[in-house]
Amino acid sequence: MVSIKSEREIELMREAGRILARVHEELEKALKPGMSTLDVDKLGEHIIRSFGCIPSFKNYNGYPASICVSVNDEVVHGIPNKHRILREGDIVSLDAGVIYKGYHSDAARTHGIGEISPEAQKLIDVTKQSFFEGIKFAKAGNHLNDISTAIQTYAESFGYGVVRDLVGHGIGSHLHEDPEVPNFSQKRKGILLRPGMTLAIEPMINAGRYDVAWMDDDWTVVTDDGSLSAHYENTILITEGEPEILSLV
Ligand code: MF3
Ligand code: CO
């Protein structure tokens, strides 16, 4: 069932989103060659807790960290590790979630470490833009598949692979709520969008083919063909008019 949030719930989710936007800003500023992915996680957890929030991901289905840190061909859910060092030219996807007074916000960004290749930068930019292409359709009266189709059409126009095995989701008092939000077109038009619905829309885009594989840690998702992958996610609110992006400042 897809829930419609009350004004009170929306206000709490706005605050969760504002805080998460700040967490991402602070993390982006801190990223440097030589940092380990565990350093990123520790800093992220510290920032989240300093805002009085709880990291949503910590211990979620056994996930051992607060920030998913996924490097280069890692798509999502990379597990922070003190031996995994970020190097100039890497791209790193940071996915974070916070709980504020019982309400979640979920957002992801991909950043370059130092100078990166033009190809890597283009993948990052197109992935981010595919989110914005999708949310042009995130309006009351449209259907969920309008968002999915717009994301796919845009990303594929650059020859990129749109990951099929992972999707976005509803969000609220739980990290994952109904509905699933695919980044690729469905045969069905999906639910009718209504004001008060809150969604985490999160395109995961590969420079090569869309196929992915799971590593032996049972978390880290990698591209099958070894190509780079990028991720961009925000928590949004469906309104009577334009969608409100809760996890951007
Ligand atoms: N943004 C991811 C998602 O929505 C984060 C979940 S990672 C986990 O699924 F570690 F919490 F599982
Ligand atoms: Co998510």
How would you describe what is shown here?
The chain is 28% helix and 25% strand. It is of the alpha+beta class and 249 residues long. The mean pLDDT is 98. The strands form four sheets. A five-stranded antiparallel beta sheet has the order 8-7-9-14-15. Strands 1, 2, 4 and 5 form a four-stranded antiparallel beta sheet that branches. Bound molecules: 2-amino-4-trifluoromethylsulfanyl-butyric acid and cobalt (II) ion. Cobalt (II) ion (CO) binds next to strand 7.
Any descriptors?
five-stranded antiparallel sheet, four-stranded antiparallel sheet, 249 residues, binds cobalt (II) ion, 4 helices, alpha+beta, binds 2-amino-4-trifluoromethylsulfanyl-butyric acid, single chain
Summarize the structure.
This protein is α+β, with helices and mostly antiparallel strands.
> Distance N terminus to C terminus?
30 Å
Number of helices: 4
Mean pLDDT: 98
Multimeric status of the protein: single chain
What Rg do the Cα atoms give? 17 Å
Question: Percent range for helical residues?
Answer: 25-40%
Count of β-strands: 15
Order of helices and strands: HHEEEEEHHEEEEEEEEEE
Q: From the helix content, strand content and strand pairing, which structural class follows?
A: alpha+beta
Widest beta sheet: strand line-up: 8-7-9-14-15
Q: Rough shape?
A: globular
Beta-strand percent range: 15-25%
Bound molecules: 2-amino-4-trifluoromethylsulfanyl-butyric acid, cobalt (II) ion
Q: Which blocks of ≥5 consecutive residues have pLDDT under 50?
A: none
Sheet of most strands: 5 strands, antiparallel
